[in-house]
Amino acid sequence: MTAKQEEATTPVFEVHGPRATIRLNRPRHLNRLQPEDLVALMALFDRIEADPAIRALVLTGTGRAFSAGYDLGSIAQRQAAGHEQVAGTSFEAVTNRLEDLGIPTICRLNGGVYGGATDLALACDFRLGVDTGEMFMPAARLGLHYYRSGIQRYVSRLGVDAAKMLFLTARKIDAAEMLRIGYLTAVASAETLDAEVDALANALAANAPNAMRGMKRTINEFARGSLDEATADARHRDSMRGDEIKEGVAAFAEKRAPLFKGLKA
Fold first, then answer.
1. Roughly how many angstroms between the first and final C-alpha of the chain, as a whole number?
2. Which tens digit of pLDDT belongs to each residue from 171-213?
3. Choosing a second label site near 112 at 20 to 30 A (CA), which of 30, 134, 145, 246?
């Protein structure tokens, strides 16, 4: 780890070709999120959505953990000081915004994931983690009733039994169990994690962005029980006469990789 990496900062943002990377960067405190990090993440999500050249996002952390979640102490300090929270920058709002990003998202779990960070990772479309990783949701030990949308994400993605086990027991589980219950998409060694992330990010970036954007939205709405059927049907009909399907069919017939240039809606 370089000296630059060890210096705590708000999330670091990089773009390489069609892939953007956000790296949480408070390694000495296991990338525990501060209020200013939430503001920075919201701004980065807006920046990503505004750039049609970005086709995939990787969210990761610096150091030995992905993140220890949100700094609950900062909430008490701000309340004691009478500071108001910036509108739309609660941890819940940031996590929901990440889930609703139009592009596909990958959480590169470089280590342990704890507390609210477990929901931040769950808001990503894919989670690739190291085989030495672990997760821990301590809400029951802290006397905290978790926010509704976070519980909904756990239930819709992992099922009722897994959600109860994680929330109600506050038990730490390892990477093998994270994979078994569906929290992890895949497990890799520390040496092969980057190659696995690169392969997935490259595959996603090569696909039709507008088709993926629409299908991701439909899948998320199905999971939340809030599907707008008419709008989903309209997205399907529009895709059947759009430029992306023309390029996809032509590429298939010509036995070449498709080249999609569609702008984000």
1. 39
2. 999 999 999 999 999 999 999 999 999 999 999 999 999 999 9
3. 145
CA separation for the pair 141, 122 (Å, rounded): 21
Q: What angle (nearest 5°) sits at the alpha carbon of residue 22, between those of residues 128 and 109? A: 20
Say what the pLDDT of residue 23 is.
98
- Strands lying side by side in the sheet with 186-188: 12-16, 19-24, 56-61, 105-109, 126-130, 186-188
Residues 67 and 168 reside in one and the same domain:
yes
As a whole number of angstroms, the distance between CA 92 and CA 44 comes to 16
Q: Are strands 112-114 and 56-61 parallel, antiparallel or unpaired?
A: unpaired
Measure the CA dihedral 210/216/222/224, to 10°. -130
Domain identity same for 35 and 57:
yes
Show the domain range for 238: 209-253
Q: Are residues 110 and 162 in the same domain?
A: yes
- Round to whole Å and give the CA distance between 115 and 141: 11
Give the C-alpha separation, 175 to 183, whole Å.
9
3-state secondary structure of 77: helix
HEC sequence for 201-247: HHHHHCCCHHHHHHHHHHHHHHHHCCCCHHHHHHHHHHHHCCHHHHH
Residue 263 resides in a domain: no
